[in-house]
Specification:
The complex is a heterodimer of chains A (about 300) and B (about 650). By secondary structure, chain A is an alpha/beta fold. Chain A has helices spanning about 1-15, 25-40, 50-55, 60-70, 80-90, 105-115, 145-150, 175-185, 200-210, 265-270, 275-285; strands spanning about 45-50, 75-80, 95-100, 120-135, 140, 170, 195-200, 215-220, 230, 235, 250-260. In chain A, the strands form 2 sheets. In chain A, strands 1, 2, 3, 4, 6, 7, 8, 9 and 11 form a 9-stranded mixed beta sheet that branches. In chain A, about 45% of the residues are buried. Chain B has 3 domains: about 35-75; about 90-395, no CATH class; about 435-660, MetI-like (MetI-like fold, Orthogonal Bundle), CATH 1.10.3720.10. In chain B, β3 and β4 form a beta hairpin. Chain B is an all-alpha fold. In chain B, α5 runs parallel beside α8 (about 200-215) and α6 (about 160-175) packs antiparallel against α8. Chain B is globular. Chain B has 26 helices and 4 strands. The chains are: A alpha/beta (about 300), B mainly alpha (about 650).
Chain lengths: ~300, ~650
Amino acid sequence: MLLSNNVSSKKTYFTTKHKTMKLKEIAIVVATGAAIASTAFGQAKLTIKGSDTLGAKLVPQLKADYLKSNKGVDIEILAQGSSHAFSNLLADTADIGMSSRKVKQSEVDKFNVSGKKLVEHVAAWDMIAVIINEKNPVKKLSLAQIEGIFTGSITNWSEVGGKAGEISLYTRNTSSGTYKSFAKLAMSKKDYASNSQKMEGNQPICTEVANNLNGIGYVGLAYAKGNDYKTVKVDGVSAKPSKVAQYPLARKLYYYTVGEPTSEVAAFLKYATSNDAANAIVEKLDSFQHLLLTHP
Amino acid sequence: MVPNTDKHKSAKLKQTASSEVASKSLFKRKRGLRIMGLNFGTDGLVKGFFGGNAYLAILFLLFICLFLWKSAIGFVPHYRTELKDARRSGIELSNIIADETKGHQGIYNILSTGFVHEKRHSFGQQEAVIYVYEELEALADDALEDEIDAYLNLDDGPEKAAAAVGLKAKIDAASRAIPAAELLDPVKLRIESLENISEEVLAQAIGYAQQYALDDYTTPAAIAAINKDINSQMGDYGKALNHCKASAKDLNTLHEAIEQNALATFDLLKKNREAEESVKTLTTGLEKIQKVGTSAEEVAKRKKQINTAESTIIKVDTNARILPVYALLKKHDATVGTMKEELRAGISMIPVESIVTQEAKDSVTLANKLLVEFDPIISENREILKNWRHDEELTTFDSLKAFFFGSVWNTGSSRQSLFGILPLFTGSLLISAVAMCFAIPLAVGAAIYVNQFANKREAGILKPTIEFIQAIPSVVLGLFGVLVVAGLLKDISQVAWLQWIPGFPIADRLNVLLAGILLAFMASPTIFTLAEDALNNVPKAHAEASLAMGANKLQTTLKVIVPASLSGIIAAVMLGFGRVIGETMVVLLVAGNMAKMPDFTAGFDVIGQSVHTMTGIIASENGEAVPGSILWEGLFMVGLVLFMISLTINSLCQRIINRNKA
C-alpha cells in the first residue's frame, strides 16, 4: 500500500517537473520504477507500532501465523510504548497503532488538526497479574489489600497473613501503559508509594520478585508463570484467561488506524481480531495467556 | 639540576620551532588561488577543512546548550502554574494533612505487626486451621477449577445436590492426597513456633475448603468466626489496637472530604488548561491551512471544532469552591488533637506486662518513641495551616525553590505531579561517592604501581588490560550487575561475620552499594590512565635527585613523585567522578529506581537502600513525555543540572591542570 503511494507520488513529480516529457516515456519510467521497487522489496509493507504489551509477543505471533497464508506482505513491528502508536500514525509512519490504553483527548485533537480520523479496534483483553515470591505463604489478596500495599499504607507482610517482613514494591516505570492501568484498576488512581522501585519492564520485575522473599510486583499475564515466583488470587479470582470477566485487574487493548482500514491493513486486522486466529495462537503458546478476543 | 632542565627545555623548544618551520614551508610551497585574502588553493582548503572540523565541535556544543536551555526554560512558569493550581484548589492543604494521617498509619502499622506476631505465637493451632484451609482451598481450586465452575453454573435442584456430594468427595480426596509435609511447609513458614499439626486441624480445614468451593467462592463463616474468636481472646491487646486504629477515623474522614473537594477543583482547572491548549493547537492548525488555501467547507468544519473546544472551557471560581475546604479546616485542630490523644491512650492500653514475645514488646516501645517525635510535627503543621491561604501569591522563585529543594519526585500521577530534584540529586551523589571510595584507591594505586614499580613486561600486561575495561559497553556491565553481582552481593551480605560492613544485610538486591561497585569499575580506567599520565609527567630529575640523596624507591614514590603529580591525580579523580555522575545505563538497571529521599538516619547503612538518579529519571521517563509538556521540560531541567555539574567539574579540572603547568 505504501509502495503504491510512492509510485503515484513519483508520477506527479514527473508530470509537473518535466512537462515536456511524453506520456509514454513517463509510463515507461514509472513501470520500470515499480518493477525495480517490487523486485527490491518483493511485497507490500505493513508497519505496526506502539504498545509493548501487544508488540512483545501477541502481534509477532499473529504476524508469523498470518504470513503463512499471505506470502505477499511484509509486516514490520516496533513496540516502544502506547504513545508511539499515535505519534507514528499522525506522522504516517505506521499503518496500525497498538495501544494498551484508550486514546487521549489531546491526541485526538492533534489528529483533528491534520484532518485525520482515528478508528479504534479492540485487540484483546489484557490481565495484569500480581506476583509474589514462590516461598511467600500468601495465596490471595483482596483488592483493598493490594491498594494498601501499593499506596504504602500496608508495609508488612504479616498484616495480610504472610510471614513478618517489610514489603518490597516493584512497579513498572511511569512511561509504561501498565503503570497507569494498574493505578486505575487497583489503586483507585491514588499515587504509588514513594518506596516503590520502578523497573524497566516486565522481566526485571519477575527477576526481582523471584529473588526477593518479600517482593511484590505486577506483570502482564504473559509473564505470570515463571520460576521462583507465583501469582496471587485477587478478590478470590485467579489470573486465568477463563476468569477474565470476574478478574478485577483486566483491561482492553486496542489497535488504531487512520480512517477505516483498507486493503492489506483491513485484511490483517480482520484476521488479528477474529477469534479463531487468536485462540489458535493462545493454544500454541502456553506462556501467553492474556487475551480473549470477544467481549466476555 | 637546573641547567639540566634548561637544556631539556631548549632542546624541546628547538624541536617545536623546527617543526613549525617545516609545516609553514609545506603550506607555502604552493601559493594557491587567493581571493580577497582567503586562500582557495588545495592547501587553503585542506587547512580550512581541519579548522572547520575543530570549530564544528564548538558549534555543536553551542547548539546543545541552546537546545537544553530552550527545552528546559519553559518549566519554571509551567511548574508555577501547576503549583498555583494545587494551592488554589486546596491540594496543597490536603497534602499537609496527609502527612499526619500517614504518620498515624506508620505508628499503627508497627503496633499491628507486633500484635500479629504475638497472636501467632499464642494461638498457633487455631491460626493453623485458617492457613491449612487456605492452602487446601488454593490447591483444590487449581486441580478442580473446571468442575467447581460447572457445579456453580448448575441450577438449584436434585442434580446440584448430587453434584455437591461428588465434588465434596473429590476435594476430600485431592486434599488428602497432598503430602502433609508439603502442606505444612508454607504454614510453618508463617507460624514459626508451630511444631506439629493434628489430624483434627487437617480434617477441619478440609471441611472449610469444601464449603468454600460449594459456596460460590466466599470465605466460610467458620473461618471468620475463628478469627473473631482469636481476636476476642487476645482481649485487651486487641482492644487497644482497635482503639489505636479508630483514633484516626475522624482525621481520615476530614482529610478525605478536603481531598475530594480539592481534587474536583484541581481536575477542573487541569481540564480547562487542556481545553485552552487544544483551542490554541486548533487555531494554529486553521491558520496554517488558511495560508495554503483551502475550501470554505473545511474552514467551517475547523471553526466548528474550535467552537466546541472553546465551549468546554468553564470559568472556575476557585474562591467560591475553596469555601467548604476552609469550613472543614476549622475542625482540623481539634480533630488532630483528638487523634493524638486517642492514639496515646490506645498505646497505653496495651497490656505490656502480659505480652510474651519480644517482637511485640519492641513494637510498643518503638511506637511510643515515634509518638514523641510526632508531637512537634503536629504543632508545626497546625502553625502552617493557621496561616495557609489559598490565594497566597506564588512567585517564580517559589517554583524554582520547589524544584531545587523539593524532596518528592512524583510524575505520572493522576493527581498533582511533583518535581523535586533533591531525591535524584542525592541519589546520584550518593552512588558517585560510594563509587569513588572504591575507585580512587583501586585506580590510583594501580597507576602508581604500573608507573613506578612494575617491570616492563608487567606494565605491558596491566596497562592495556585496565584500559580495556573502558571498552565494556555499560549495558553489558549493568546486566552483569543485575544477573550476577546483585545476587552475589546479597548472599555475601547475609554472612554473619561481615555484618560490620555498612549496609549489610541488604534487603533489596538493587541498591546504592551495588551501583557504586559497578560504577567504580567503570570509572577506574579513566582515573588510572589520567593518573598514570600525571605520574609520567613528573620530570625524571626529581626521582633521580631523591634517589641520589639516599631515599629508597618507595620513599621516592610516596614523598616525591606522588606529591609532584598530585594536582594531575586530583584532576584524574574529578574526571572519573564526572564520568560516574553522568553514567546512565548502569544506574538505571541496578540502582533500584526508588524516587525517594534516602533515609540518612540509618547512618552508613544508607548505602544498602535503593535510590533513583538524575540520569536514570531522564532515561526512564522520557518515553511517555510529550514534547513541550511539563514532564518533558522538567526532565530537561534535570538534564540542565547534570550539564552544569559536568561543566563545573571539567572547568575545575582544566584550572587545576593549568595551574600546575604554570
